Task: structure prediction
Amino acid sequence: MKTFEPFADRVLPWLTCGAMLAALAMVFLYVPTERVQGVVQRVFYFHLPAAWMSFLGFFTVAGASAAFLWQGGRAADLLAQAAAEVGMVFCTVVILTGSLWARPIWGVWWTWDPRLTMVAILWTIYAAYLLLRTLGGDNELLARYAAVLGIVGVLDIPLLYVAVQLWRGIHPKVEQMAPEMAWTLLVCTVAFLCLFTWLLWLRLRHLSLRADVAALRQQAVALS
Amino acid sequence: MWALLWKDVRLELRTKERMASLFVLALLIVFVFVFALSPERLRSPEVSAALLWVTLVFAGMLSLQRAFLLEQERGCLSGVLLCPFEAGTVFLAKFLANVLFLTLVQMIVTPLTLLFFEVRLSWSLLALPPVVLLGIIGFSALGTVFAAIAVRTRARDVLLPVMLLPLLTPLLLAAVKVTSAVLVGAAWPGVWIRILLAFDVIFVITGWLIFSQIVRE
Result:
């Protein structure tokens, strides 16, 4: 964590800003308008990277949870919590941008397509995880419980995926993209990855400072 | 393990409160559906299938909430854990007790539901009990893990369903599909059966392995 600190504090914010500006410029100025769907298709360049980041968040939660259960250590626990919070934000962005696109193209804000169902359920699993963290009370075992939920959640994903695929399907699959579109998607993904890492870092540091403060307060109470 | 299981069963035999409340709740849910739906709707096999599982989920949730409550209130879980066996064994005992109670309740509630919903009786209905049992096994496996977690948190009544329901989605989708196929007498939906089986196997093993992480003091 220490070696990452100077990079995260000095370089990452600027990197995120630059990549985000480049992404915006490419989405609005550079990339050609899609022939069939029109202007609204441009939201796709934010939608898909956000979806990838929310999955990345999910797997980070699971990985950090496993590391915490088998090796312990506060850092892994805090990383899992921070990743769940950031992942939840991106998951919400996916649902909102998807809705904006679906309304003109499919004619509805929401439909029970497999991927929509999948994202909706992932969102509720994230929500359950964060609720457990906040409503769990002051229990030193809480970190352990949250880690169990993080791991069971990721074990559930393959089954969930198969089940909703079998259930029904209309989501557009990207078959071929013009090179401009592929480049724009790439830049957007990099921008979102920077944003994801930066948010994760800020949240992680905040949580770790808060834990430090709580520990200091306990010491102070014990001394007085 | 059998001693632990026998302890839960004997407790239940003495008070009968868990079974009695489960049974009445399940029956009431069926009634609510009967009142809410028009008679034509009631006869659709898909509605009966969905209803069967809604009843089971709610009744099961109640059963799980009681699974660790007595031990938690009297501080007996530490006593159980002091005994010289592994946490996985405690999981298996609790899980089997839950499977047993839910199965007994469903043995009465399922026929009653079929009766209220005027399902045609046929030989294909014989496939229903194993399907319900598979569902109960998956539900109890995941449920026992999260009941053990929820009972030791502050907002235990809210947290159990909030944690459990999204994770149960694959099980419920598969269970409802198979049940409605059985009620219609349609072809055996092999792929959904495999999902049910996979769910049961994965989460019984996961629960057994991960339980020591939950109950550790």
Notes: The first helix of chain B runs from residue 2 to 15. Residues 55 and 207 of chain B are 24 Å apart (CA to CA). The mean pLDDT of chain B is 82.
